[in-house]
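Let's practice the habit of predicting before peeking. Look at the sequence and jot down your guess about where helices and strands might fall. Then scroll down.
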Amino acid sequence: MPFPALQAHRPHLGGLRGAAAQEPLGLYLHIPFCRDRCTYCSFATSRNGDLKPLVLARLGAELEAWGEALDHPTVDTVYFGGGTPSLLEPDEVAALLAEAQAAFDLRPVEEITLEANPGTLAPGALQRLRALGIDRLSLGVQTLDDTLLQRLGRIHDGATALDALREARAAGFQRLSADLMVGIPGQDLDRVLGDAATLVEAGATHLSVYLLDLDKACPLKAQVERGALALPDENAVADMFEALQAELPRLGLPGYEISNYARPGEESRHNLRYWERRPYLGLGPSAASHLGSWRWTECAALPAWIEGLGTPDVQGLSLDEELAEIPLLGLRLHRGVDWSALRAHAATLDRLDLVERWEAQLAPFRKHGLLAWDGDRLRLTPHGMVVSNGILQLFV
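Done guessing? Here is the structure:
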């Protein structure tokens, strides 16, 4: 059975194996199935459940192949993403975890997350998932407003979302995250703040706040373009985002990353490794990986991925690109970037001139209150986080 990403790395597999031995990996498994496609979705998903046995078999084969290639490294976080991983039966989740345990050393695992859509998990399934060691659920709530949920093409209503949180808590889940979307047509500030408060009251210990993204073709974008629906204006969306920045800490969930808020100690350990540039291996269609100086993304086309015929997007990072990733990703975190350490690291690479060029380009953002110094650390201000894409573009 061919494994295109693994074959692409054969010439430098020793370097990948060495990188995997330096610290535990994060393991991401992409489950590409949804009951229905949301109107804003452009992800690699399928409604063809008949393909599930083939996908699970392929994931098992990839786990075995990569575990052997990397000499069975340790893994300390596992993340089932999608798609809708909660469409898997608990026995299917158990089988994937067993295959992961056979291929990798999962003894140091400190977090296993499963993404779930409200309405796809029965109480009995929740209890079985918890017994398997799944200790964190991430629920795709988006909003509690039934009209807005229908516009988004979600399969649940607001009451079902709140029931899912309460049932998960009753099943033994203490770590519960909910997605909250900002910028939906018809959404207003009171609705957003009300949703946040209600979700926390219902048991959410973590909120991920996302801006509606219609950059790619999808049914909702088509509705907006033909004038059937109107997006909130940019100022209204910025007001919602900044209001949540102020309100969520008052609800006990301080921010730790541009889009993420959590009770202290409830941060997503797996997702933190993305912004801290720690290694992770992603398996499944469209899954991304970062190991050593290499980043790659699996083929997104489901049939081609199943057959091992897709072409992965593989990128070997230059020294300058690796250096740029430190502020590109680190400034997303509320704690910011230790700039003195960045300068010292750049000096060892003889690239201090590159950092000084960034400093000159960042000066106007500091002047306008979008960036601020906190000792030796440079961080985005609350308003800077709202317009972060324009700032972080400097490092791309």
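How did you do? Residues 52-69 form the longest helix (18 residues).
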